[in-house]
Amino acid sequence: MAKQVRKAKVLSTEQITPHLQRIVVGSDDFADITCAHIGNYVKVLIPQNGVADLNLKTACMRSYTIQHVNEQSGALTLDFVINMHQGPATHWAKIAQVGDELGIAGPGPKKLDNYQHSHYVLLGDLTSVNAIKGYVQTLPLFSKIDAFIHAPTKQDIIDLDTTRNINWIITNNADEAMLNAIKTIELTEQPPIVFMALEAGLVRKAKAVFSEHFNIPRCNIVSSGYWKKGVDSEGYKKERQQNAELA
């Protein structure tokens, strides 16, 4: 990911669903970010006590997927999950006001790099819904796409600006529902490429289903645990850092 930190301001903030806060940020430094970056991620340098920290070494940072790019103004739209997880980014998103300053680093690349495959399986929840939006808008029309997104309520369903079929799984028991949905997938001749960004424990369970039930090679699976049950965002970040150091 590009290390450039761009100083930005909040242009608007709106709670669009019970669990999503949509924040539009603008900067004179966004000129090189285009609609092609929808679905890419940026690092948001979260203000602390109302003060923006633009230093990559000291700032509290979280990754967020670009939901929309206004090519005329250069504004970026980002969706923050609220009322579900605890952490500095969630707290800031709920209290952010127009004019607040923050830092934006990136954008970084999309996780998938093969856009000529015959079959894709996309699994996500509200933390990764815009990553899936970016893929369904980018993947070729000849490809079969099985997309499943978990949301806690029907009111959390958002428009992904696509004609592709999106399967929304509305439940409080995401693990069971998502694993059952995976088992309904009908494979094509080639093993699918799988992208999933979910709760860390569910990612492990889903990997096992793809490997054992479908015999899909691990190299075809791109996965990330965006959050973890029972651990706040700061604790989960430290846990991942410790695991990376031990790897």
TrEMBL record:
Highest taxon, organism lineage: Bacteria
Name used for this protein in its record: Iron transporter
Signal peptide: none
Domain FAD-binding FR-type, first and last residues per copy: 3-114
CDD domains recorded: siderophore_interacting
GO molecular function: oxidoreductase activity
Pfam families xrefs: FAD_binding_9, SIP
Family: Belongs to the SIP oxidoreductase family.
